[in-house]
Design a protein that fits this description.
The strands form three sheets. The protein has an eight-stranded mixed β-sheet, sandwiched between helices. The chain is globular. The chain contains 14 helices and 17 strands. The protein binds NADP nicotinamide-adenine-dinucleotide phosphate.
């Protein structure tokens, strides 16, 4: 047999059952992380517990520093107390004394105002004391901007005016979503970022991409030769992506009521999933190879005019209802939401990707709040066999469906038909499934999304972070929908009870094409 893939040796099947697993330990260079907004909600819920976990798990180097930067007056000791409380409240790790001792001595605090140049001078001095030279002879400094977006211009200005972007320190900047609220604001944000940092210093974070099962989509597609030949318009009838949440807006009314479902979930999470499932094979696993392919997908999504949007998108807002046996309030009754709010909390849509692989294949996307359960799934619905040999005798004729489960119960299911045992000719649907937790029991540690992304940033790997052109291309897909929805108004809101799968028109969107939504 020929060695037909250059560089890939022929398989030794005797050894192939136990693939060598790369050790989880990653060699991180000494670094200093400055968390702007180090006392805020995101820092307390996610960043600080994750950093503690990384330290407890021995993933951080001996030399590192974490500097919380916020406006309130605090000493280093008082800040450490806040960090300890956050880790205890929101983290998964017990704050054992030896571990806490090791972590907390690296934590300190700078009190300052984002719009005050003296605060940045103070930060500069602190960095000079703390930043350590690594093996490349550089001092790695990471700025995590865990602040509401309106503070960003002040921070870029402050960093830049005190030579904190380039120069003595080798810096990277991590920016939280949302990246603008439309194309125009995203371009402006990128312009401001670009004035202070080069693109290779910028890490636009979307924690969704840190999820193990989201990353697995690429591995599944491109490391298994049996599916990729079928992954096109010849064999696939349509694709569905569902991102359903049973929760309402919790305490996010201020952000959510001005953003709505398209900015909150579609512009980022859903389009990211769409690109991973539909992109062409990248020529390598480096950041830009993958990001290039994603951008191509966004650019080939068919442009949606007003008429198309009216026909093929569905918007909704939840009313009162019952979830898990509990009565829940309508969106307009949530704390902080105006009683006549027209903000959509549900989205469904049919889109086309006009390229050679996908021409004519509909992609049905839906997401919403207060749906019956929390589930994220991608299902690939294959075409029926061209000849139905068993059609006269078979009552059940279900197509093959491949389901990529992102959450919960992460895994992969292939839905196939087999002959039902007996003297008749009945086709019977069964599932072949792989479940991460059950099938890899004992072998797996599911990193928290921020764990993976923070480590990648410390390493300088941008693969899972969005690039400027990608962000703008995503806005160019959703902006027309947001604008048309705003023009059309929402006279029938609320139009779905909490605990249901959205407005009836979402079902109708597929029914009129002889299809239906599936959750497996
Ligand atoms: N919260 C989440 O779970 C979550 C999830 C995903 C993304 N995000 C994004 O993360 C970002 C931060 O959200 P957040 O909820 O953490 O915000 P937040 O709770 O309002 O925190 C704001 C932080 O900024 C500091 N601050 C405010 N004004 C300041 C000023 N003038 N000068 C210096 N410091 C000032 C506050 O410190 P003091 O209180 O000491 O003033 C606080 O540490 C947002 O872009 C959000 O969209 C949040």
């Amino acid at each position: 047999m020929a060695d037909d893939i250059p560089g890939v040796p022929l398989a030794d099947y005797s050894a192939s059952r136990s693939c060598e697993i790369t050790p989880d330990r990653i060699d991180i260079e000494p670094f200093t992380m400055v968390i702007f907004g180090g006392t805020g909600d995101l820092s307390q819920r996610k960043l600080l517990p994750t950093l503690f976990h990384l330290c407890a798990d021995q993933n951080l180097p001996d030399e590192f520093s974490i500097i919380g930067f916020a406006s309130s007056d605090r000493t280093d000791e008082e800040y450490r107390e806040l960090v300890r409380e956050a880790v205890e409240k929101y983290g998964n790790d017990s704050v054992k004394s030896e571990c806490w001792e090791r972590f907390s001595r690296h934590v300190c605090y700078v009190s300052g105002q984002f719009n005050n140049v003296d605060s940045y001078r103070k930060l500069f001095t602190r960095l000079q004391e703390l930043a350590k030279v690594n093996r490349k002879g550089a001092k790695d400094v990471l700025y995590y901007l865990a602040v509401p977006p309106h503070f960003l211009p002040d921070i870029f200005q402050g960093l830049s005016s005190c030579r904190l972007c380039k120069g003595e320190f080798d810096t990277r900047v991590i920016v939280e979503k949302p990246f603008g609220s439309d194309m125009e604001t995203a371009i402006e944000l990128n312009r401001l970022l670009g004035a202070s940092f080069d693109e290779n210093q910028i890490y636009r974070i979307d924690h969704y991409l840190g999820k193990e099962t989201v990353q697995n989509i690429l591995f599944f597609r491109f490391a298994n030769s049996i599916f990729e030949p079928l992954w096109n318009r010849r064999y696939i009838d349509h694709v569905q992506i569902t991102v359903a949440e049973s929760l309402g807006i919790e305490n996010r009314a201020r952000f959510y009521d001005s953003a709505g479902v398209v900015r909150d979930i579609v512009q980022n999470h859903i389009l990211q999933l769409l690109s991973l499932v539909s992109m062409e094979p990248p020529i390598g696993f480096e950041a830009d190879y993958i990001r290039n392919e994603k951008v191509k997908v966004y650019r080939t999504i068919r442009k949606m005019d007003e008429e198309y949007i009216d026909r093929f998108t569905v918007k909704g807002q939840y009313g009162r209802g019952v979830i898990g046996g509990d009565d829940v309030a309508a969106y307009r009754e949530e704390k902080g939401v105006a009683s006549g709010s027209t903000t959509p909390t549900f989205f469904a849509c049919k889109i086309y990707i006009d390229n050679w692989r996908w021409a004519g294949v509909p992609f049905y996307l839906r997401t919403g709040k207060r749906l019956p359960k929390r589930v994220t799934e991608i299902s690939i619905h294959f075409k029926q066999p061209p000849l139905m040999l068993f059609s006269s005798a078979c009552k059940v004729r279900e197509p093959n469906v491949l389901v990529l489960r992102v959450q919960p119960q992460e895994g992969i299911v292939l839905h196939i038909g087999v002959k039902h045992p007996g003297i008749g000719n009945q086709l019977y649907p069964v599932n072949m499934s792989f479940n991460y937790e059950e099938d890899l029991q004992g072998d797996v540690h599911f990193p928290l999304p921020y764990e993976r992304l923070l480590l990648d940033c410390m390493k300088g790997d941008q693969t899972l972070f969005a690039r400027q052109d990608g962000i703008e291309a995503m806005w160019s897909v959703v902006d027309p929908i947001i604008q048309q929805w705003e023009r059309a108004g929402a006279p029938d809101f609320p139009n779905y009870p909490s605990g249901t799968w959205g407005p009836g028109s979402a079902e109708e969107l597929l029914h009129r094409e002889g299809r239906q939504w599936h959750i497996w």
